[in-house]
From TrEMBL:
Keyword presence, Ligase: yes
Superkingdom of source: Bacteria
Name of the protein this chain belongs to: Phenylacetate--CoA ligase
Provenance organism: Selenomonas montiformis
GO molecular function: ligase activity
Record's keyword terms, sorted: Ligase
PANTHER family, A to Z: BLR5969 PROTEIN (PTHR43845)
InterPro entries attached to this UniProt entry: ANL_N_sf (IPR042099)
Length: 325
């Protein structure tokens, strides 16, 4: 199933034309409106006028998490607070990163998430339990996308008493959660003398803040006997829908109409073009409005897979060390 076949099955040349058009606009927008990127571009002597091809993206400076952590979010932003729809401080690894979203940013995030959910088999007949604090913007995107698809949504919060009570009331076939909350649910059910395997649960969308594929994945798979689909949602990216798994489970499709991927050497700014070579995944937003992200070093080891996927999607995939095993 496809949520947006026009994009998910777009031919390569058309997609690259769309990417280049959006890249030029995004870099121009960042340079003109974001103080952070004005200074970054000036420091290396580059301008949006230097972008003529997709390969020219390598002329732009890389962005690292430490830079964003030291930057006031208003300097990163491209507009005053009166121009945004949502502002949130997202806790991550002991610190908090503030993100702002326009109406367009939220719409893009929800569109990406509908693709993730649909690729995992979620549809209007699905009954989906969502673990976590819905004050988190990333979970809000997931809930909105589920409602657009017509799925029944059961917000379960973070209280395990609520989890058990809601599970008794409804027989969810899908769970959206983080690896740690899934394991907490398994333990709480076990403490109550129950086994999650006996529930109707058949799929889990597990979104991780730390990595594309969490090392707890195999343990969760064994304990739940459910089909797992990984999502990647660190605070810097502001959504959990940029990378997603289809039913083939052969790597992670990239939302290439919204994010341009590169593989860069871990110890330099050298872009790796050779196939089957691992490096660091670098992402550039192509349609962000409030807080564009130019050549962000994710810290994730990955390689780009150019071969077509058996699911029929033409969006390229990344392969991680764990998924390559």
């Amino acid at each position: 199933m496809y949520a947006n076949p026009q994009i998910e099955q777009m031919n390569r040349s058309s997609l690259q034309r769309l990417q280049l058009e959006r890249l030029k606009k995004q870099v121009k927008w960042a340079q003109e409106k974001s103080r952070f990127y004005q200074e970054r571009f000036r420091s290396v002597g580059v301008s949006y006028t230097d972008i003529h091809t997709l390969e020219d993206i390598s002329r732009l400076p890389l962005t690292e998490r430490s830079m964003l952590a030291r930057t006031h979010f208003m300097d990163w932003m491209t507009m005053p607070l009166s121009g945004v729809l949502r502002v949130q401080a997202l806790p991550e690894e002991g610190e908090s990163l503030t993100r702002a979203y326009t109406n367009g940013d939220i719409a893009h995030n929800v569109e990406m998430m509908t693709r993730c959910l649909t690729a995992a088999g979620v549809m209007n007949a699905s009954l989906v339990a969502v673990q976590g604090d819905l004050s988190d913007s990333r979970l809000l995107d997931i809930q909105y996308a589920l409602e657009i698809l017509g799925a029944a949504v059961v917000p379960m919060g973070t209280d395990y008493h609520q989890w058990l009570r809601m599970l008794d009331m409804v027989g969810a076939d899908t769970l959206v959660s983080t690896p740690h909350l899934v394991l907490q649910l398994v333990i709480q059910l076990q403490t109550a003398g129950r086994n999650i395997v006996d529930s109707p649960l058949k799929r889990i969308l597990c979104w991780s803040r730390q990595g594309v594929q969490d090392p707890l994945r195999r343990h969760i798979q064994e304990r739940t006997q459910a089909r797992l689909y990984d999502l990647y949602g660190p605070a810097e990216l502001g959504t959990a829908g940029i990378l997603y798994q289809c039913e083939a489970h052969n790597g992670y499709h990239i939302q290439e109409d919204y994010y341009y991927p590169e593989i860069v050497d871990f110890h330099s700014d050298h872009v790796i073009h050779e196939p089957q070579h691992m490096g660091e995944l670098v992402l550039t937003s192509l349609a962000a409005e409030a807080m564009p992200l130019i050549r962000y070093r994710t810290g994730q080891a990955a390689m780009l897979e150019e071969e077509p996927c058996s699911c029929g999607r033409t969006l390229r995939r990344i392969i991680t060390p764990l998924s390559a095993v």
